[in-house]
Amino acid sequence: MPHLSYVNVFAKDVVALSGFYQRVFGFPEIEAIRSPIFRGLDTGKSSLGFNALDAYELLHLAEFSDTRGVKFLLNIDVDSKDDVDRMVPIALEAGATLVKPPYVTYYNWYQSVLLDPEGNVFRINFMM
Predict the structure, then answer these.
(1) Could you write out the DSSP letters of every residue in 58-98?
(2) Helices 81-93 + 14-25 axis angle, to 10
(3) Model confidence pLDDT, tens digit, residues 19-45
(4) pTM score
(5) Rounded to 10 degrees, what is the CA torsion of 33, 68, 90, 47?
(6) Which residues have C-beta within 8 Å of that of residue 26, sequence separation ≥ 6?
């Protein structure tokens, strides 16, 4: 059965952006795969990678490298509503921008919507 192993984010600064997700969520770095243009974090069920913009060329994606606008949404699940409420201020202190404060969705999740320091959208979720 196929499974998701990685989600990779193109980043202007792989060290700073991976460090943001480490500080906010405590994801440890996978040091064995570190390179000058890549950092990987262990999220427990899959991994979150950060590729430097040089990777566009390496992957033959240079013609598709228009990074304007929202291109993806990272969803990070936590264990409780209290965890959502606790982590939002941590994310803000680490450089995130609040888009939507914690709320209950129409599908009964408790979540907050934020932008990381490079403007990528992510949600902190608790599935009630």
Answers:
(1) HTT-GGG----S---EEEEE-S-HHHHHHHHHHHHHTT-EE
(2) 140
(3) 999 999 999 999 999 999 999 999 998
(4) 0.91
(5) -30
(6) none
State the Cα–Cα distance between residues 30 and 90, nearest whole angstrom. Answer: 22
CB-based contact 52:14 (threshold 8 Å): yes
Question: Is 13 strand, coil or helix?
Answer: coil
Vertex 11: Cα angle to 105 and 64 (nearest 5): 90
pLDDT, tens digit, 9 for 90 and up, residues 4-18? 889 999 999 999 999
Question: Which neighbouring-strand residues pair with 6?
Answer: 47
Domain limit, last residue, from 62, 91, 110? 62
| Cα(81)–Cα(108) distance, integer angstroms | 12
Whole-angstrom distance, CA of residue 85 vs CA of residue 96:
14
Q: For the beta carbon of residue 44, count every other beta carbon within 10 angstroms.
A: 9
- The CATH number given to whatever domain includes residue 119 is 3.10.180.10
Give domain status of residue 1, yes or no. no
